[in-house]
């Protein structure tokens, strides 16, 4: 992950055809050479000779720089032998090479003071692979990456937003405290909204509190999962973030607000809490998940993307291990990440059947009856109705059929993200029978690498996130926070291919035995062709800019590109 280093990095590739002015600056340490560009008279023949020498020297220098690969290109992907796989690959120069370059640079303003650049805060993925070899037409189409249609990140805020920032970013009287619950990506959503609400209320944000997760018995705190200093630094122009409440604002009893309607607007937030916050100095909010509207003013939508894709960087220990595992997958060639939601709690919460047989389904049904508080699926629907409505995760058999219909090669390599599947290895058998090259983080990790995180489901989920983020193709078996977050993050950083199974439309065809395999494959591919182009966000209740960054956080033209 690139980070702002606080110094200017001069990159030799920024101008391959130096102007006389740039040459003057380049050689400013040498007065005799600089004098060539002054107004003093010089022998014409001597000037031509020296100028020819300088241009030749510059060309030689550029050639040498280009001969040595950059750090990004110095890691080559191994060629998979045709005897073991029909696929050969090498890194594809990403359409976002400018992002990778810009992420190495620091900004500088007109006063020559170094300023943090957004481009230096984003997690940059490894390049996608150019897949070639003895591929069928369907396999070639499967590996094909989407066309970006010229969309690039653009987070430029309005003049009014920037003017207000001068005061809000220094706020010392009003403080917002937020308690974030749920799994990792559910907590991330609430942290993002916490920043937005702090901005709306013109308050300083106390580092969010991560509530102990009772389902996964996870007691991780914010610094265990996220890089605190990076979070503060990235947002310092938008919202003041502090590690704890100042002593002047510590009170014996604080009101905790938990009853917030869904989809509230900035106007509602300000009308409801601003007066109270002014009087008490502290506001504590809990249960923010999906409470803030998905449709916000442009500046706040861009701030959402800034928090999600830039500020919320994982802690260094998590990032280091996740990046190592991603590189081990990537170095062997192209890979697909599957986020399979096959854990016991998922089956319990959705009210769906496991596909493993009556013995396993009875265990899930018993938990649902004895602990109904965990059931979040629509209880007024039968299992079949829920499944055909797209409310159930795809099981391993259904995922195998989907992948085969989409043209995934049987020799393809698959990273399996997610927790331990209910039923263990039995749950993956239908998938492994068709696609045997299945890899989990436990298989990639070396001795002791995962040990520090074994008691933290959030950290393990973050590692899955990093490996999936770097994959050539990402496919979730179910909706959910991680699937939506990765879909949007991968789009934001280069429109890397993500395939969202269109379960509601495709599952009836799974049941139709009269359709030939060829016709079935054609139907499935046509249902998922949206993966081949950027999909603009529709202003609906559940369509978040984090999952669909086009067009609020990405644009085709303008100076907002970083």
TrEMBL record:
Q: In which pathway does it act?
A: Glycan metabolism
- The yes or no answer to whether the keyword Transferase is present is yes
**Which superkingdom?**
Eukaryota
Which GO molecular-function terms appear in the entry?
glycosyltransferase activity
Isomerase among keywords: no
Provide the topology term for how it sits in the membrane.
Single-pass type II membrane protein
Identify the CDD domains for this entry: O-FucT_plant
Gene Ontology cellular-component annotations? cytoplasm; membrane
Q: Where in the cell is it found?
A: Membrane
What are the entry keywords? Carbohydrate metabolism, Fucose metabolism, Glycoprotein, Glycosyltransferase, Membrane, Signal-anchor, Transferase, Transmembrane, Transmembrane helix
A Gene Ontology biological process term: fucose metabolic process
> Where are its TM segments located?
46-68
Q: Principal place where this protein is found? A: membrane
Q: Which InterPro entries match?
A: FucosylTrfase_pln, GDP-Fuc_O-FucTrfase
Extract the PANTHER family matched here.
O-FUCOSYLTRANSFERASE 37, OS02G0726500 PROTEIN-RELATED
Membership in a protein family: Belongs to the glycosyltransferase GT106 family.
What is the designated name of this protein?
O-fucosyltransferase family protein
Q: Supply the source organism for this entry.
A: Gossypium australe
Please spell out the taxonomic lineage of the organism that makes this protein: Eukaryota, Viridiplantae, Streptophyta, Embryophyta, Tracheophyta
């Amino acid at each position: 992950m690139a980070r702002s280093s606080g110094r200017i990095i001069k990159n030799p590739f920024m101008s391959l055809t130096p102007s006389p002015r740039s040459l003057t600056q380049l050689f400013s340490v040498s007065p005799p050479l600089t004098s060539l560009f002054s107004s003093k008279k010089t022998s014409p023949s001597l000037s031509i000779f020296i100028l020819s020498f300088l241009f030749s020297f510059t060309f030689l220098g550029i050639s040498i720089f280009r001969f040595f690969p950059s750090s990004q290109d110095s890691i080559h992907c191994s060629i998979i032998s045709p005897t073991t796989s029909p696929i050969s690959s090498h890194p594809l120069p990403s359409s976002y090479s400018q992002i990778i370059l810009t992420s190495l640079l620091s900004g500088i303003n007109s006063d020559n003071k170094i300023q943090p650049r957004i481009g230096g805060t984003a997690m940059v993925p490894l390049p996608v692979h150019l897949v070639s070899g003895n591929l069928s037409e369907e396999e070639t189409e499967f590996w094909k990456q989407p066309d970006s249609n010229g969309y690039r990140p653009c987070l430029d805020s309005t003049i009014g937003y920037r003017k207000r920032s001068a005061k809000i970013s220094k706020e010392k009287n009003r403080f917002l405290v937020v308690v974030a619950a749920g799994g990792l990506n559910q907590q991330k959503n609430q942290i993002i909204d916490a920043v937005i609400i702090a901005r709306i209320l013109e308050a300083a944000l106390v580092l969010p509190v991560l509530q102990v997760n009772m389902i996964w018995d996870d007691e991780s705190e914010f610094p265990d999962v996220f890089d605190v200093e990076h979070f503060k630094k990235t947002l310092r122009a938008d919202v003041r973030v502090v590690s704890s409440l100042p002593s002047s604002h510590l009170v014996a009893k604080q009101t905790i607000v938990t009853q917030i309607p869904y989809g509230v607007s900035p106007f509602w937030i300000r009308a409801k809490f601003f007066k109270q916050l002014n009087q008490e100095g502290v506001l504590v909010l809990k249960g923010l998940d999906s409470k803030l509207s998905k449709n916000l003013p442009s500046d706040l939508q861009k701030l959402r993307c800034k928090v999600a894709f830039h500020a919320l960087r994982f802690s260094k220990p998590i990032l280091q291990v996740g990046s190592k595992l991603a590189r081990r997958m990537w170095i062997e060639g192209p890979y697909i990440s599957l986020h399979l939601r096959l854990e016991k709690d998922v089956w319990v919460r959705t009210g769906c059947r496991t596909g493993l047989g009556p013995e396993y389904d009875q265990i899930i049904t018993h938990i649902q009856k004895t602990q109904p508080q965990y059931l979040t699926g629509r209880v007024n629907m039968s299992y079949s109705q829920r499944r055909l409505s797209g409310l159930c995760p795809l099981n391993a058999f259904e995922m195998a059929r989907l992948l085969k219909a989409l043209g995934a090669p049987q020799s393809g390599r698959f990273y399996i993200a997610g927790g331990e599947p209910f039923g263990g290895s039995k749950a993956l058998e239908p998938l492994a029978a068709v696609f045997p090259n299945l890899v989990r983080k436990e298989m990639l990790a070396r001795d002791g690498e995962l040990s520090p995180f074994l008691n933290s489901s959030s950290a393990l989920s973050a590692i899955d996130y990093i490996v999936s983020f770097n994959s050539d193709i990402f496919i979730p078996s179910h909706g959910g926070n991680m699937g939506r977050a990765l879909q949007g993050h991968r789009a934001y950083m280069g429109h890397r291919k993500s395939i969202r199974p269109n379960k509601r439309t495709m599952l009836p065809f799974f049941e139709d035995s009269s359709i030939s395999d060829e016709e079935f494959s054609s139907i499935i591919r046509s249902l998922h062709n949206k993966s081949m182009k950027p999909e603009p966000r529709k202003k609906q209740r559940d369509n978040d800019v984090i999952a669909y960054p086009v067009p609020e956080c990405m644009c085709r033209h303008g100076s907002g590109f970083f």
